[in-house]
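Retro notes, item 3 of 5
We never archived the inputs for the S-adenosyl-L-homocysteine complex last cycle. Fixing that now. Sequence and ligand:
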Amino acid sequence: MPRRKHSQVFLKDVNYVRKIAERADVSEREWILEIGPGRGNLTSELLKAGARVLAIEIDSDLNRFLSDQFSLFLNDRLFLINDDFLEINLADIFARYGISELKTVSNIPYHITTPILEKLIYNRNFFPEIYITVQKEVAERVVAPPGRKAYGSLSVFVNLYYDSFLEFNIPRSCFYPVPEVDSSLLRLKRKDVVEDLRDFEHFVRRLFRGRRKKIRTLLKSMGYYSPSFESKFHDFLDKRPESLSISDFKDIFRECQAIKNEIQ
Ligand code: SAH
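Structure as it came back at the time:
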């Protein structure tokens, strides 16, 4: 009996399970991370494609089921971890298997979509590509461009570090038990970014504490001002944080990081 508290909603439609595995374009012996394998519907397709799957499932009954079901692959191409994805230390686990990067392919538990996304993004050095099914509205928010109604902090957060694509929708009737919402396969492709996300978030938050002050004043008070900014950023030194786009913030942040590194 599926457990509600773990958002156990299994993707039972074989065509869609295949479509996800195909879209993820898994190659022979490629390492895949699967969060919440459930009864192994997707796991099975990934193994068929020749992948090595590291699957993290919180429910110990399902873990037992999976070890029986896939006993032939166990500890050869399927590695099962009975734990809470949000609690585990990814670096430790990946080091144990000698993994430096892996593709995430998962039909995740929807009640923890945001924390899962945050954990993946905060650990993005491991994750060049992510394929996850999420609630359709969440996928729409992630991919929304500025100016759209769905555009918001989630779009900004994700798209700072990944290009995002809504690959296709999956009707609710393809799941068991049939949920209240439709789903979409979301694809995230890591951008080449060097800054640390937390530093950037902290930086933007600090600027916003003085949302009525001009950028020039704020940068001076933070010890980041350089006369070279006058020509580089003359478009927005007299503006206030509330009127800057994320890309403006990123430009300023990069320069400020450079100044910080020179000082050190
Ligand atoms: N991928 C499967 C199951 C999806 S249901 C399929 O497509 O059919 C979501 C799964 O995530 C369930 O098996 C649930 O037990 C598991 N799960 C829920 N919370 C979790 C967590 N914090 N860490 C790991 N797995 C979790």
